[in-house]
Amino acid sequence: MPASNGTLLLIRGFKRMNQEEAFVRSFILLDKQSRYLEMLASPKRRDGFLDCLNHHLDYDPSYAIQVPSSQQKAASIEALLRQRGAPEICHTISSLSKWDGLDLGLHEALEMVVGYNIGTVLCCTSGRLAYYESEDIRERYILFR
Fold it and tell me: CA 49, CA 37: separation in Å to the nearest integer?
């Protein structure tokens, strides 16, 4: 018997929260994690977290590798992520609502995000590999554990 639409939405919501929770638990500073997780879980407070993507995401710098200025194009970033085991599909967390919460092909997501300076995270491998582009020009990072 196929799942009802309500069940499908629950599964998608659960998958999204798992990806996003893994991102926070792996790459956000320990003293900010619980606050960020609460924000992500609440439809009313989610925008507050998404705004942090633009201005000041409290990521742990020990897991961040800044993308070299010579490699700040979608194809180069894709190659860097693939070298670290990025799969075909990634999950988006973005301050731009039309990009937020999508599961997209990595190539498509990078083409969409890179260079637009809109605070966005691409979760590649749950809790192990992500890409973060901030609002600031050339602030692009690979987050890797």
Answer: 9
